[in-house]
Specification:
The protein has 682 residues and is of the alpha+beta class. The protein has 5 domains: 4-103, Rossmann fold (3-Layer(aba) Sandwich); 112-131 and 203-463, 2-Layer Sandwich (D-amino Acid Aminotransferase, Chain A, domain 1); 133-202, 2-Layer Sandwich (Dna Ligase, domain 1); 469-489 and 499-601, Glycoprotein, Type 4 Pilin (2-Layer Sandwich), CATH 3.30.700; 615-681, OB fold (Dihydrolipoamide Acetyltransferase, E2P) (Beta Barrel), CATH 2.40.50. Helices cover 26% and strands 32% of the residues. Helix 5 (107-114) packs across helix 6 (116-125). It starts with a strand and ends with a strand.
Amino acid sequence: MFTKILIANRGEIACRVIATAQKMGIATVAVYSDADKEARHVKLADEAVRIGAAPSRESYLLADNIIAAAKQTGAQAIHPGYGFLSENEAFAQRCEDEGIAFIGPKAHSIAAMGDKIASKKLANEAQVNTIPGYNDAISGPEQAVEIAKGIGYPVMIKASAGGGGKGLRVAFNDKEAFEGFTSCQNEARNSFGDDRIFIEKFVQQPRHIEIQVLGDSHGNVIYLNERECSIQRRHQKVIEEAPSPFISDATRKAMGEQAVQLAKAVKYQSAGTVEFVVGKDQDFYFLEMNTRLQVEHPVTECITGLDLVELMIRVAAGEALPLTQADVKRDGWAIECRINAEDPFRNFLPSTGRLVRFQPPEESMFQSDTAKKLGVRVDTGVYEGGEIPMFYDSMIAKLIVHGTDREDAIHKMRAALNGFVIRGISSNIPFQAALLAHPKFVSGDFNTGFIAENYSQGFAAEDVPHEDPLFLVALAAYMNRRYRARASGISGQLAGHEVKVGEQFVVVTLGAEGKNIHHAVSVTDFEDKSGSSAVTVEDRTYRISSSATLGQVRVQGQCNGLGFTAQVERGPGKNPLALRIAHNGTQIDAIVLSPLGARLHQLMPFKAPPDLSRFLLSPMPGLLVDVAVQPGQKVQAGEKLAVIEAMKMENILFAAQDGVVGKIVAGKGESLAVDQVILEFQ
């Protein structure tokens, strides 16, 4: 067995590998770019080596620097994680040539299956059903359009070396095919150092279901059941679960056996994933094989009790698999939510900056102890006070739960999301809460078009209605009275003039453009010393109790006998007196006033924000890679104005209305802050 390994990656996956290595008594070496000098994976590893500048092409994609770091530290093996060089056959071969074990498949397997074009050809030769498409590299956007027309729209334009939703577009016409090819090629070049693109038929209303396989150097290959990965936005997975709520045992067995057959054809060693697109009648087609560990591997670990990273390390060290197909379990139900640094209310724009607060829910399952079950697990590469840089993927954590069945897993996940505190940057937690509450998700009736179909106009607060909105009002009144009661107990108050806590309040929920709503509320403490209060709003009464203290954002308690987790804080919005209450994805800002104070508050005028429609503002921090217009140029609504690169994705800014460009304020290559002016209109 190895005594020291190097992890050629960053973020949560680097931390994940370190956890298992430590359990196995193996020393670890982290590598880092200038942007990651203070990153969590650097702090967790036994040693750390700088490998270059912040952009991944100048650090994490430099094989020479990584090999040099392994030699410098005496690492006997390299775990590539996922992304970056994990599916780069030249890197795997280079490791082998240098006498360093590659904790992943052999280079020949990566060459055959890691490359999307080669893998589809091999699958065809093995008489595996594949989706119609053009499987050779395409020379340019003009050829892409001709091929797309020949296959028939819609088509999927895809980077050969792609993964994680990067370098992928769906085109429904010639214009989208032309532009999509160019964007895919740029993203593929920047993310993977390989700009080859292929095109295939886009199967409408499909489900994305993948089979986890595991092979060793002794010819053994098994499958570890399936993962349902159909909940995707822009072809990037958002929620994954195991098992799938859709397929039958017969389909599961057929898909698993086909995946094993494919893996054996290329003498596959290590963990890998065979992805299938599955039709409504459970007919399935080979899509691609990822010759690496997947982001969503924890859900498989939950239902099987296996540590996939440990098995990868043991296989790379020459050990045989310790189990057969008959030994593979399927216990309970697991769900994973990807917690991304993005603002769902601003079309999921990337959000970077400092994590002022980062308090995940309490864990009861752990990366390196997969025997624990029926709980909560958090895989992350960040910490409170750390920075989220703009150079890498937007995912900052994976929240995983394991339940007895799917209903239990959904319940656990909703509670865990309620208790996940992130401040300083925006996150997609409200969107995840909305998805988990959606009736079609709850029933298992969805496909890969679920998000596009149900949130075609983007995501807004109205898309996640609370099942009992008056509970949020009641909680605001309850917490405000707790704060007031604490103030009344402060010593040193003048006798006879102590602060008195009343029972009658008005909760003013603050709406857009000054459209506030007033709720008359009474809060009465029970005399049984339970710490409970009866909160009456309109005709509803809530018995609420909580031991939450002042300044504690995560509030846990009981309401009418049922447990709840919510987030409560004072003054996070524009009004320093307001309480922000968040629960099940819904958020309100409210001021709790006396009846007289509420009447006076109604007299306050509303001040409208300034009109900024003359300016094109950067919606996110990022790199301005292109300004597509010139001063004096007439533009029409929908016309391309600029391109910003952030978190490895190109974001195109379009004109919202017709106009004439006045002045270009920001230049190509400039690093932009949020709301920085790019150009002005006349």
